[in-house]
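Please, structure for the following, as tokens.
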Amino acid sequence: LRKFMEDYTFQLDRFDDGTPQEREKIEQLQADFSLIKVKVLLVNLLNGFRDLTLMGVQAFDFNHLNNVLISRDQRTVRLIDIDGDSKGSIQVDDEYMQGRPERSAPHKPSLDVDLNTVLPTMVQQLILGKGRGRSFVTNTVSEVWRASPEDGKRRIREVLKENFFSGDTMSKDAMFKIEKHTRKVSEWFYCMLKKHEPWNTWTRDIYDAMRCIDHLPIS
């Protein structure tokens, strides 16, 4: 997954090393990667976390991308080096079993995985960074944070159109549909980025993260 994210955000105008075939491969990857594929990749990643939970694994180290593998078509995700910190199987405390869980605690049984370090950055790069570079993502996120809600969402829409809907001249009907769709995506992304309702707890555990990603508009 680390190599995929590097290729996905790579700025082709800075391609100095490598063969023409390597450049063409990166260019094709970026051209083919739609918002639907963004959602499929994120859903499959979170499904992998859920599967570990179903298997009873207690923890997974998600502080880097080297232990996540994806297929060549980016449709299948595999987690390696599972059972982070050798914590063994999930343990459910007595209070939870007796119906007295803490409100702020993750839903249980829940995989012990850090969703605050890598996942938000990954989502930001997938939405904003296709062929733009990581510094562009960082600067755009900073710009959105400083702007008013309307200006921030407008900036997100601009980047979405450039990343996923640029190309040949489109009809007025197609442009209207794109405008409507990017408005929905920008609303979702803005709330996710700033952790506004209903996504104020989306990195708390895998279940909240899955609900958030499930609501990423794709049509």
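The two ends are 26 Å apart (CA to CA). The chain has a mean pLDDT of 88.
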